[in-house]
Amino acid sequence: MNDTVNVNLDAYVATVEIHRPPNNFFDLELIEAIADAYETLDNDNACRAIVLCSDGKHFCAGADFGGKADDDDPTRELRTRSLYDSAVRLFRARTPVVAAVQGGAIGGGLGLALSADFRITCSQARFSANFSRLGFHPGFGISITLPRLIGHSQADLMTFTGRRIKGDEAVAMGLADELVELAEVRDRAHTLATEIAASAPLAVRTIRDTARRGLADAVEAMTAHELEIQTSLRKTTDFKEGIKAMAERRAPDFKGS
After folding, report:
1. Pick from 15, 23, 4: which is nearest to 194 by CA?
2. CA-CA distance, 67 to 184, in Å (whole number)?
3. What are the strands of the beta sheet with 126-128, ordered from one edge?
4. d(CA 215, CA 127)
5. Which domains does the chain have, with CATH numbers?
6. Containing H/E element for 62?
7. I want to staple 138 with a disulfide (CB 3.0 to 4.6 A). Which of 142, 167, 210, 250 is the partner?
């Protein structure tokens, strides 16, 4: 356990809990901590399934820009590359993951939710690839994982508009797997993880490896492409306007420059 991620293992099911309430904003430290936890659990024969959850109002509200575009940070690109390297580690992990998604799974938080095998959610949840509303490009491999899950047309609709998808709509479109009451999200995720853990662990891992064959390599290649475009778009006035508008809780006024 550390200040960022709590890990508990009981009856073959591990709980990996993000502990940055209420918004659970993500950064390099958080994704590294989750990747480290997954790799440790992969090597523990007492772990057969993982529940990824959060302590707070939101599952993960994405990156905290704080109203600033941080375009003058000389370490930003390197840190983002390191973050995406850790994201790829999530996809290379071999233990099945059930995400318990309450509140918002926004931007990179959506990418984190999509790294799981299954998502249990509630009507209060909001799923959003809000990058275009920030004058930005999706990252975290979302360019691969989102259309893989819901098809290119629906994925384009989400990424072009940045709209927020409610929990019931997310289940209807295949973005999430089950809709339950808010208070039941984590318990239902544990129930599903326990059901997975009751199956033969070697069989489950090989079945999962087959189902996700090539996914981690594809995410690795895509994050390199995403980072290149993100680095370019960070220099635009639209990106600065998008971040400023978000902080001021108003509609952005994009100029295409």
Report:
1. 15
2. 34
3. 104-106, 126-128, 165-166
4. 22
5. 5-184 (3.90.226.10)
6. none
7. 142
